Amino acid sequence: MIVTLLVIGLLIFQVIFIYNRLIRLRNNAREGWSGIDVQLKRRADLVPNLVTTVKGYATHEKQLLEEITTLRNQSIAGQTVPDQAKTASELGRSLKRLMVIAEAYPDLKADKNFLKLQEQLSEIENYLQKSRRYYNGTVRELNIKIESFPSNLIARLFGFAKFDFFALTDESDRMVPEINLN
């Protein structure tokens, strides 16, 4: 009788332990997503200032500036993680193209406002990279726990679902840039 009660007590303790671990991992993943969301919002808030500054110098780059504005608006709309990753990736590529175009305008490159915006954008991209790594790490841990025995039984019982990774959606983002020093 006592052995049965001890076994039942041990099983209940194990269920509680696994459940609490799943809760902690899910909250860590949500926190990680919040960090990405904050950085994407910071970048989206910076884009109009950047577009306005460049617009004064590069008037014939209207198509790219409109594309950036459209992507910026999409990035602040509520989306799933894969959709958000795709939009963020596209916006990042467009902003890189904008920086390349800016190289052709010496007055723009020397503009203090543009330099400050460029520095802020670089800082945001660094924070965004760190946030993505943190989020993906917490999602990995949560997903492993959801798929592993015996925690998968508890996860299924209490309705825990796997999270999506924040992944690159364009293979060109994975390619090493070609450097020409000539």
From TrEMBL:
What organism is recorded for this protein? Cyclobacterium plantarum
Entry's PANTHER family?
MEMBRANE PROTEIN, PROTEIN LEMA
The family this protein is said to belong to: Belongs to the LemA family.
* Record's bilayer topology term: Single-pass membrane protein
Q: What is this protein called?
A: LemA family protein
Q: One Pfam family from the UniProt entry?
A: LemA
The entry's localization annotation reads:
Membrane
The record's keywords, sorted A to Z, are: Membrane, Transmembrane, Transmembrane helix
Q: What SUPFAM superfamilies does this protein's entry cite?
A: LemA-like
What are the transmembrane regions?
6-23
**In its keyword annotation, does this UniProt entry include Transmembrane helix?**
yes
Q: Keyword check for Membrane, yes or no.
A: yes
